[in-house]
User: Fold this.
Amino acid sequence: MIKNNRIVLMALLFLIIFTSGISGQEEIKVRITEGIPMIPIALPQFDYTDNSLVNDRVIKELYETIWNDLEYSRVFKLIPRQYFTYIGKLDHENISFKDWESVQARVLITGKVEISEGDRIIFNVKVYEVSTGNIIFKRNFGARKEFIRLIAHRTSDEMMKHFGEKPYFTSKVVFVSNRDRNKEIYIMDYDGGRQKRITFNDYIDLMPSWSKNGENLMFTTYKRGFPDLVKFNLYSGRTDMISSGGVNYRADWSNEDNKLVYTSSKKNQNAEIYVREMDSGREKRLTFNRIIDSSPCWSPNGKEIAFTSQRTGTPQIHIMDEDGTNVRRVTYEGTYHDNAAWSPDGSRIAYVSRIEGRFDIYVLNIKNNTITKLTEMAGRNENPGWSPDSRHLMFTSNRTGSYQLYSIDYNGQNLTKLTRKGENLMPKWQKVD
Amino acid sequence: MKRFLVVILSVMMIVFLFNSCAKKVKTVPETTKVEQVEEQAPKVDKPQLTEEEIFLQKSLDDINKEGNLKKINFDFDKYSIREDMKGILHSNADWLLKHQTVVVSIAGHCDERGTVEYNMALGEKRAEAAMNYLLNLGISADRMKIVSFGKNKPLVKGIDEDTHFQNRRDEFIIVKK
Assistant:
């Protein structure tokens, strides 16, 4: 009986601990990704129908890109290539699934590359369930050779869709680079491929972010000599002034694209948080004080906003409701925090903390209030942002002497350098449904 | 009438004849004297330009290069005016009071140690602090603009405290004279 009482007490205590604090958000959609075994996949070399492709880098690039995508996903695990030597050459018409089962593959991806007219190729891909030999999906992708990486990412996206994951391999990352002398806006593939300059205005451009549909960017530009917030349409090239007067920066579009939260000092020469309805242009000011409030970002359900506030003396991460009420402090350790980024699944908030002059990236797990340090003792690490599936982050670090973009898993594994030219900052990953 | 005309004509004839006769007789004396041809320039004083006129003749770039308005520096993570910077603000104010047409842009800057985002706000606070100080010294608000560059425009490169100190600054740029 006494033992029973103790258990009840413990349970109550746990309940109190977990329901109090900052974990009081509603409707957090948490997909439990930890601990789920990855799906073993066999990806044998692709066949080609035309001998002119024998030494063509196209096949290698297609194959390697798909391999890297699937490995990056942490959803799939690729069977090591040397295992394939135990198995005879793949016969597309008569696949021996028993062989693939013997190397523990659950899924088999086969591909054939054909040359069509001119500079175009066709990639014929079939994906099988090894245990039954059933086709999971098959597709034919045709494109000019220069778009070979896009075909690879499309193939990887199909894999993600068929296994219930977000297809983010064709999504883009926007960032700032000074590789052409001035700080301008660039975009690239998620893996650092196909980097492309977007703005050519010779003024400082900073802190870009995406609209959900991927058509518009919001960023700060010094075009008029002052830091104004503008909306830029990637396809029409049209620029619209969104907010000017004082400083205007760090805009974050809500998941429905209908609202924008950003920092501005237009009314009182002091950085405050504003929410703007994109259709009507109506604005609501959420913070009212003489200290700095900045760097807001939406919770994925649009009901809360994480931001940096100096209201307790030093910059700390806080959360408030979307109407500006119910402000709660999130960070306590250290005296300098900024760059809050809420994971798309709602479960985590990444931020930077400066401790003894070092900037590192931390991830707060809202479910259990635990903090993980993602980067350690290697240069300055800033501007964390999440992948659409919340399994990866991108950030900027000067660990090699200059600021470059890196990708890292949410648990600190698989660090990958993505840029090399000039200095590269403020990566922001496009949203994907 | 006719008679009158005849008389006039004959008088003119006589005068003419007499004149030509006299010329023939006259001789020009030899001389070694050189006539000095000189023109005395009229003594007109070029009017002295007033200080204001000289000022207005210069370009904005030149005026800014003269450095009449001095930078002020800040403490780490702070935007309050340091005691030792107040003198600079006073002399900046004196100069602005003497040059009433000048409009100045106060640009707040930060060292590289903060985040881009927070430094945007901090740079503005630094610019605002100087503006408020100058307001109290009688410079009217419509003669001052503020702008924050955060840590986007460091003055010097480096990682030591002296570099950071030089980069944590307000610059006073004359944008209208």
The interface with chain B takes residues 183, 204, 206-207, 220, 222, 225-227, 246-247, 249-250, 263, 265, 269-271, 292, 294-295, 308, 315, 336, 338-339, 352, 354, 357, 359, 382-383, 425-426 of chain A (CB under 8 Å). Residues 39-162 of chain A form a domain with the Rossmann fold fold (CATH 3.40.50.10070). Residues 341 and 386 of chain A are 7 Å apart (CA to CA). Residues 2-19 of chain A form the longest helix (18 residues).
